[in-house]
Write a structure and sequence with these properties.
mainly alpha, 232 residues, single chain, two-stranded antiparallel ribbon
Length: 232
């Protein structure tokens, strides 16, 4: 009896597999033909796979994957896309941000910090011409000098990694509405984000990223405290 049951199960499974792997076609004369369907696969180094192939491979969310340890972005436009992706990885519902931060690559980290630096530099330059409070203007000068030094170190890191720098940011809308309060709030939020990235970078297995994050983490914490003090 057991043998008969096993045989019945095997025959049933074979029938299911056969029906899944074949397609039925009915001709006008009523005859039926079956054709075996192919399985979509993505071979290594396949040139320009279609979106359907990417989705079939289980990675339809990934825009691009570096080949091996090659971290080159290829162009400033590609680097800007990578930077935007890095920002998107931390802009999500609460509870998933830390997971997304932990999944950042070295290139993600570098591009996010580059965007952070460009934002502070541009806004600190603009607020000095608008600010009526001398303390805020002086703080903006300190922020500008600090971020320019940090930017020089980051540019060297981009050179070591052979990665293209992101393009310039379009902050026209933010700059038009810039006030002392909005500037300080922007610095607070930006430094909070930078601290989160530096904390992740501080645990990076990449020694260059780790050294950079370790150097600038305490500086970002200091700037955050200064901005919060002025905002009160």
């Amino acid at each position: 009896m057991k043998i008969l049951r096993i045989a019945s199960v095997l025959i049933f499974c074979v029938g299911i597999l056969s029906s899944c792997s074949t397609q039925k076609r009915v001709a006008e004369d009523g005859s039926v033909t079956r054709t075996r369907s192919t399985i979509t696969t993505l071979k290594p180094n396949a040139p320009n796979p279609s979106q359907s192939v990417i989705n079939a491979s289980g990675d339809g969310l990934t825009i691009g994957i570096p080949n091996g340890n090659d971290l080159r972005a290829g162009s400033s436009e590609n680097a800007t896309v990578i930077a935007n992706n890095a920002i998107a990885k931390v802009n999500g519902p609460k509870g998933v941000n830390q997971h997304r931060l932990d999944s950042l690559t070295s290139v993600d980290f570098m591009n996010k910090i580059a965007v952070h630096q460009m934002t502070i530099i541009q806004m600190s330059t603009l607020i000095q011409a608008k600010s009526l409070d001398r303390k805020v203007a002086d703080f903006a000068k300190v922020m500008l000098a600090s971020q320019e030094l940090e930017q020089k170190d980051l540019k060297r890191l981009f050179g070591y990694k052979n990665v293209a720098l992101p393009g310039t940011l379009n902050l026209n809308q933010q700059s038009n509405n810039l006030t002392q309060d909005s500037y300080l709030q922007m610095v607070i939020e930006d430094q909070q984000n930078a601290i989160r990235f530096f904390e992740v970078g501080n645990n990076s297995k990449d020694p260059d990223i780790k050294a950079f994050a370790t150097k600038y983490l305490p500086i970002s914490r200091k700037h955050l405290q200064e901005a919060q003090s002025l905002k009160k």
